Amino acid sequence: MAKYFDVHPDNPQPRTIGSVADSIRNGALVAYPTDSCYALGSRLGSRDGISRIRTIRDLDDRHHFTLMCENFAQLGQLVQIDNDVFRAIKAATPGPYTFILPATREVPRQLQHPKKKTVGVRIPDHVVTLALLAELGEPLLSSTLLLPDEAEPLTQGWEIKERLDHQVDVVVDSGDCGTEPTTVVDFSSGEPEIVRRGAGDTTRFE
């Protein structure tokens, strides 16, 4: 059964956030809120985490995983980014955007797109997510909590606990965070290509 943590959306309890971070360090797969919708997360180098996310979401190897970052210092270690792209991304973050960029050697090969060698990165605008990332001290491997054959992601922590009780290890509940996933912008060619229109405004990339 999954551990269930009720976290205050504006003032997350440090002890609770610490417990969740410890669980992730020990290999846990967590369901947690973001500024777009709930996500599944595990430690960056966890093969088990990657496998379990693929199983829950029924993903193939062409899926772009997202590396959730606390700040640009972390993001810059994971992807190759030139000055023009940096300025464009900087202007849109933190926020509900995922950016696809060429991965650096810091990113495990199994997280990269098999042909393009790219990966998704983002800096969220959510108090609980940022508190967890700060406590963890490293990026969090993530994927939208959208189950196979369902049109919208799960939005309630209690429902996630109920439905995925034996598939995840931890559920972090800080209230409803919406159903729209991030807007995904592919910058791997140097020019923005909108791959998915979601919670973020796309006009700046058009």
From TrEMBL:
Residues forming the YrdC-like domain are 14-200
- Alphabetical list of InterPro entries matching this protein: DHBP_synth_RibB-like_a/b_dom, Sua5-like_dom, SUA5_domain
Q: Name one GO molecular function term.
A: double-stranded RNA binding
Please name the Gene3D superfamilies in this protein's record: DHBP synthase (3.90.870.10)
Q: PROSITE patterns, from UniProt? A: YRDC (PS51163)
For this protein, the parts annotated as crossing the membrane are none
Looking up Pfam families in the UniProt record yields: Sua5_yciO_yrdC
Please name the PANTHER family in this protein's record.
DHBP SYNTHASE RIBB-LIKE ALPHA/BETA DOMAIN-CONTAINING PROTEIN (PTHR42828), THREONYLCARBAMOYL-AMP SYNTHASE (PTHR42828:SF3)
Please identify the protein, giving its name as recorded.
Answer: Threonylcarbamoyl-AMP synthase
Q: Tell me which species this is from.
A: Streptomyces gardneri
Organism phylogeny:
Bacteria, Bacillati, Actinomycetota, Actinomycetes, Kitasatosporales
